[in-house]
Amino acid sequence: MIDVFGSVRGLLKLDTVCIDNNVFRLHYKVTVVVLVIFSLIVTTRQFVGDPIDCLVIGVPTHIMDSYCWTHSTFTVDKKVRGRIGKDAVQPGVGPYREGQDLVSYQKYYQWVCFVLFFQAVCFYIPRYVWKIYEGGRIRVLVNDLNNVMIDKERKSNSMSQLVEYFAVNLHTHNLYAMWFFFCEALNFVNVVGQMLFLNYFFEDEFKTYGLDVFRFIIMDPKERGDPMSRIFPKVTKCTFEKYGTSGTIQKFDGLCLLPLNAVNEKIYVFLWFWFMFIAVVSGLNLVYRTAVVIFSKFRLFLLRRESRLSPWNELRIIHIKKKLWFIIYEL
User: Is residue 326 part of a domain?
Assistant: First the structure.
């Protein structure tokens, strides 16, 4: 288990010099780590065992398992709700009329691990873009001033170089700030896009999935229908067809157990609530960022708050603050 999760240890490393903010880190650190861990879990038999086990008479088990995993399984829509043991053996499992009764095919389970990893990559892209453009500028400007053991002479020299840099580059950081705001907006667009993608991936079942699960938990057991069994059934049907001795097509009705879905359903309940949370936080952050850009007094208020312990003469520095407010705020 330690070996499996050891590969994500590097993602948890904290930067000594931060070039973004806490909302940004929710995307490229927390979310990426969560998605990579989930991807590892669903691909490791240590946690879920065999991804599929099928029972059928007349076909070797290993062949049936491979066939149903490759060609997908299905459930009968009208059997999803009902009393287990009376109306159906399991939710979605029961007799049906081919061509008349609606069935739902489970094709996604082969792709879950890849989709989770793809999502992790997408959540890291804004960070990667910003890191390339930022180019280590903040780290150079800090110049070891964040080191509590720095001596006074070196600290004085570093501060002098910093002031000289600001004086020379007074009007050159507008594009720098705009790129950061663009990457923040990209974070928001990405998480909303990921939610829409998952809704498409699960055939329009993901948009209310978290709320459906919450309602399922608080409802009366006699009245509720499990939404997790609708999207992630643990038991499904699979029909194997082959030619008989005389050339007639024979159909074998199989029952398949999908233990992997017991993990998938919990993963996507968490992701539904997590994506909603970071979408709301990112949206509020964009509103805050818009206010900062539009209202100069708000920017000055933030800078005063951050530099309240600074010995700077505010009357001398107020003009520079308006020109370099973002880079100073980052420092």
Answer: no
Report the domain count for the chain.
1
Cβ burial of 281 (10 Å; 0-12, 13-18, 19+) is middle
Query: In 133-271, which ranges are E strands?
Result: 235-243, 249-257
76 and 68 Cβ atoms separated by less than 8 Å: no
Q: Residue 66 above 80 pLDDT?
A: yes
In a domain, 329, yes or no: no
Range of the domain at 255: 2-294
Provide the whole-model pTM.
0.78
Rounded to whole angstroms, how far apart are CA atoms 329 and 303? 6
For residue 15, the 8-state DSSP code is P
Residue 266 contacts residue 289 (beta carbons within 8 Å)? no
* 264: nearest Cα among 237, 238, 229, 236: 229
E strand spans, 166-306: 235-243, 249-257
